[in-house]
Design goal:
The chain is α/β, with parallel strands linked by helices. It is 26% helix and 33% strand. Helix 5 packs parallel to helix 7.
Length: 300
């Protein structure tokens, strides 16, 4: 998977997805999350484990958790488990194995092709963050971070972590945040508010954020007072965080605006992608303390 050219490029607003199946349903995971794909191997069951957790397996000396994606999505189990596949993924600074039924192919697409799910079937509890139309079929882009958070709530962003920084004065600085997950937008709102930042403007994707920023930049006299810093996720429908950062840094007025990429995809292998587009900092979720300290460093 690491030989893919998409891993070397940045700011194109494109991605490659691995299409996989659970029963008759088709889903997708970002290639940047995938380390390798394996045939079934023995899994050791763990007593009293979460219902989504099949157990653990050993891979080249590492002991990794195995998540049953069908169980996590409330779908039926495989009818032919010998043909199932294991997707070894790395994000949020950890490796996890996802048990799926089939893996079909890799597609290169634009983030603009990924549509936001309708509020009729999305909701804050949904694991679907986007819908992709491919060859007359719909492929659902899964929120794997949400699945892991359901299994282990302590792995997410927590207000209690910010409280460890001690009492903080209220900040008048204004921050724009691009994050597609409703759950994570609320977490960021709560934690950054606790950290003293009271002027937070949230957007569901990079396209909405850059439209807002470019509109502000039309009035250069008030722009510097309107926003002082941008925080962006990477994976977002319509426009990803790398392309958003690139657009900001290439804009004659916006270019001096500090940009922090706050994403589960910040790894040693992928950090160069943020550097290429000019990000001022890159911090892996869920390191909220590090994010707050970096905001202080860049704008206070």
């Amino acid at each position: 998977m690491n030989d893919s050219s998409i891993l070397l490029e940045s700011g194109t607003n494109e991605l490659e997805i691995v299409e996989f199946g659970i029963g008759q349903n088709k889903f997708a995971i970002n290639v940047m999350k995938v380390k390798e794909i394996l045939n079934p191997v023995p899994v050791v069951a763990i007593p009293n484990a979460h219902p989504f957790v099949e157990g653990i397996m050993e891979l080249r000396g590492e002991v990794l958790p195995v998540i049953n994606v069908a169980a996590a999505l409330g779908l039926k189990e495989s009818t032919n488990p010998q043909q199932d596949k294991l997707i070894v993924a790395e994000f949020n600074q950890m490796k996890t194995v996802f048990h799926v039924h089939t893996v079909s192919q890799i597609h290169r697409i634009s983030w603009a092709q990924i549509e936001k799910p309708s509020e009729m079937y999305q909701g804050q509890e949904s694991q679907i963050i986007g819908v992709i139309k491919l060859g007359g079929e719909m492929v659902l882009f899964l929120d794997f971070e949400k699945i892991l958070l359901e299994i282990n709530p302590d792995s997410g962003i927590k207000v209690s972590d910010v409280k460890k920084l001690g009492p903080r004065e209220r900040s008048l600085k204004k921050i724009v945040i691009a994050e597609d997950s409703a759950m994570l937008r609320k977490m960021l709102h709560d934690t950054l508010s606790e950290a003293g930042f009271q002027y937070l403007e949230f957007f569901e994707n990079g396209q909405d954020a850059i439209t807002y920023l470019e509109h502000l930049a039309e009035n250069t006299d008030v722009f510097s007072q309107a926003v002082q810093l941008v925080i962006t996720d990477i994976e977002m429908p319509q426009m990803d965080g790398h392309h958003l950062t690139k657009r900001i840094k290439e804009h004659p007025v916006l270019e001096k605006l500090p940009v922090i990429i706050f994403s589960s995809l910040i790894t040693n292998e992928l950090r160069h992608k943020g550097s290429v587009v000019g990000a001022d900092a890159q911090i892996s979720k869920p390191e909220i303390n590090e994010l707050v300290l970096k905001i202080d460093e860049l704008i206070l």
